[in-house]
Amino acid sequence: MHTHIITGKDIVKVYGEHQEKRNVLDGVSVKIAQGEFVSVMGPSGSGKSTLMYALSAMDRIDSGTIHFDGRDVSNLSENEFAHMSRNEMGFVFQQPTLLKNLNILDNIILPSLRDNRKQLPKITSQARELMKKLGIADLERRNITQVSGGQLQRAGICRALMCSPKIIFGDEPTGALNSRTAQEIMDIFTAIHAEGTTIMLVTHDAKVAAQSERVLFLCDGKIVSEISFPRENGMNLEQRMQLVSRRMQEIEI
Amino acid sequence: MYARIIYNDIARNTVVTTITMLFIAAAALLVALAAVLIINLSGAMETLMREAQTPHFMQMHAGPIDPAGIDSFAQQQPDVLEYQILEFLNIESAQIVIGSNSLASNVQDNGFSVQSEHFDYLLDLDNQIITVSDGQVYVPLCYLKDQTAAIGDELVVKGMSFTVAGFLRDSQMNSNLSSSKRFLISANDYEKLQEFGEIEYLIEFRLHDLSRLSAFESAYIEAGLEANGPTITYPLFKMINALSDGFMIAVILLVSLLIVAIAFMCIRFTLLAKIEDDYREIGIMKAIGLQLNDIKKIYLMSYALIAVTGSLLGLALSYVFKGLLLENIRLFMGESDNTALAPLLSLLGVLLIGAAVMIYVYRILHRFRSISAVEAIRYGGSQKRPHLHSRLSLNQNNLVPVNVFLGIKDVLSRKSLYATMLAVLIIAACIIIFPQNLYNTISSKDFISYMGVGSYDLRFDIQQTDSIPEKASLIAQALSADPEVTASAVYTTKVYTLITDEGSREQITVELGDHSVFPISYAQGSGVSSEDEIALSSINARELGTQVGDTLTLLLNGSPRVLTVSGIYSDITNGGKTAKASFSDPSARTMWAVISAALDDPSLAEEKTRGYAELFGYAKVSGVDAYIDQTFGSTIESVRKAAGAAAAVALAVSVLVTLLFMKMLIARDRYPIAVMKALGFTSADIRVQYISRSVFVLLIGVVLGTVAANTLGEVLAGKVIAAFGAASFSFTIDPFTAYLISPLMMAAAVLAATGIGVSRAGHITMIDHIKE
Ligand SMILES: Nc1ncnc2c1ncn2[C@@H]1O[C@H](COP(=O)(O)OP(=O)(O)OP(=O)(O)O)[C@@H](O)[C@H]1O
Ligand SMILES: [Mg+2]
Q1: Which fold has domain A4-95+169-252?
Q2: Quick one: which of A134, A221, A238, B35 could link to B346 by a disulfide (CB 3.0–4.6 Å)?
Q3: Residues less than 5 Å from ion ligand 2, measured at CB
Q4: Which ligand is nearest to the CA of A41?
Q5: ipTM of this predicted complex?
């Protein structure tokens, strides 16, 4: 039986003031199991990103509760979040959020170094190992403007993996890439997942969603549908994609 | 059509825009004030000297006089418009008591006069010629300024009592730099008072044509007329009148220059930051072939708006403040009559500032040309910018905490950005330390050696009396018998005829004595070391066209004597025309003598002064401190005030600029800050990073600034002092304030400002900047 790494209950997130006020998340409840690979789909503006940042405790919510690894993390203080994010979570964004004045290697080791400066050699060798695994081993001295988008995204993933996170959150990590590169990144995510890391991805791409274990469909701040692809389910990638696309079309009507 | 864009632009950056505007306003204000001061100073001076009819040539003379000789000389000289011989009744200062204040400790030569008949009038505060009744006295303005006297006070001199009826402007003796002060009384009272003082004559001429002055000067000397005392000419009166306010104008102009520089730095920073922000848009516009000039126009117009508003604000403020600064000029010289020019010149100065700002903006905008469309679109920024220092790699650093490392790294990889702040801090450090050094220097006892005065503790002046040499040697004997006097020397001043290369004759006053006892500083060469040498004041050297090593021929007792010029020194005493030699010549008449003495314990100076003054009634005894205080006192005081004000301004500017800089940095770095927060960096981490940047820049700035102020500043000050004719120059640095207190003050101010500036870094939310 699964233990849940994230349990969100009746999450409400309000944006806007006065008449403009709107529940962007309107009572969403989600459970993500330890080691699960979940993707979130939905029309633009449906609240996918908002949900992801709420579940990761980076954003505040207006009501409801969120538990991460057994702890209540609804409305953490900034410092509590920082500590948790540094040690237990990994984030991958659509735009490679690397810092301009550090080279690739420095960008990757930066968060880990904050607390463990004395373990620099260990951290560096760990980063090099990850970079090798993700195919960017020879880019470590490059400036971030000197590598391609796909390479940057890999560097971003390396950075997210440095703390051996319990969960990786990805907000459209393949959104800015071409389909070939996107698939390479998805292969990386699949491999990470295979090693036991929980993954939650927000995506517009049915092919990306089809490679996860469970797809949540969000519309107007509510989870309106859900598809599971259990391991024993014999569908191939093509069939899964068709299923996801069809469900999306139904929602968007 | 641009109005909207400009409005948005300004509305988005209110703080930065406001501060830039304020700096422009401040610069405009100062320039406008300087303009007003210049016009008023020159105007008021002209008015005063016109109303008072200041003499063009004046010979002071003590001793017997032959009015008939002067009269026949004046009749024969076609240049002379009119002449007069005024009497100045020199009264020992200790004998003058105003209200409860005695002038005993005053080093001025105080004396009484009656109103002149033809010119050189003593004027009241409305520039009207004063008519004084019996029993009344009009007192020189400087005693109103230092609050020695007030209208209605009783002035007692040698048992005679007068009522202070008002104050007088004296177009030739107003300034503290001129050593005599005239009190005005009625002719009847003057007659009664006459027996208590020594009469000194002021032989005054006005010429038809001022440009004939030097010819007339020579003619007067050639004629061998009375000349036992200094000669002062119209240009020198003018200079003395202008000096102290001129100094203030120079300081104001200097400060405004600095503020303009700071305004430029703010503009540079904002513009560079903006160009970087808009890099993508600019690149895209370029890529799709839009006219760059249009974008430039938008930038230019926003700055034109800022510059115009700032300038107008400065101009308006100058009207508020000018009264304050004009106070002194108004008091001493009265109203000026060509004030209409003042607003015009102010406007011109302000326009100049505005134009400078626009030109500067225009030049920065040239960078648009170098924006690469490809880089802009592909990377959203210039690729050149973040050039990495491979040695400064996180993966090679385990000495410095990560946040500190990131701060320093950022400074090093965006040098041109931080150069702005660095420059401001360097300038600020200079502004704090430089005037302080200047103050320490000119208030130190050694400083007067640059001004032609040796470094002694006591000074005896014997003038306007007979048998000066005997009296001088009496004093010298007393001094050498005094165990507390460590050194003393007698200097007698005599007049000699000098034969120039062309064969014409000039008079030159030479101070004879052992000049090695109380050496002064020489601009060139050195002091006299043998009887065949002479040292000249810089004015004399300039007028005679002589240099070190040249020879001069003097007539000693009728026979020519060739002397080699050993050195040139600056001098502000006796009208600046002096010479020093060490030959002995008992034959020539002594005009005056000065006996200088050094004390074992200089703190005894005051006590000794009193003791010797009682002993030798015929000599004016003064401590050198009192001497400095009363001649340079007001200058030293204004430098002290200026130093204080400059330090306050510099601190305020560093605080403001740091605050501004940090705010701008954080506004620009919202995205990386959000990213770091998402990665698990806390607000405190971010603050440490920014404080590290600031501290790093601060350290460099303070060190460079301190070094610059103490070295380059010395050179600069030396140049300024040299303009006054002074010799080679070195700072007297108080290490405690210059190397410890001032840098610490700056560091504290900048750190506090950084703290406040970065406090908002914590408020940047991750979500708003990274959510897709
Ligand atoms: N800071 C904010 N203030 C007000 N409204 C917001 C804010 N952030 C998001 N919204 C609104 O909340 C809704 C959900 O936003 P969210 O970014 O979660 O959508 P999304 O599903 O991720 O869309 P997309 O697929 O385009 O990224 C949108 O309608 C958006 O306009
Ligand atoms: Mg989104």
Answers
A1: Rossmann fold (3.40.50)
A2: B35
A3: A 49; B 772
A4: 1
A5: 0.84
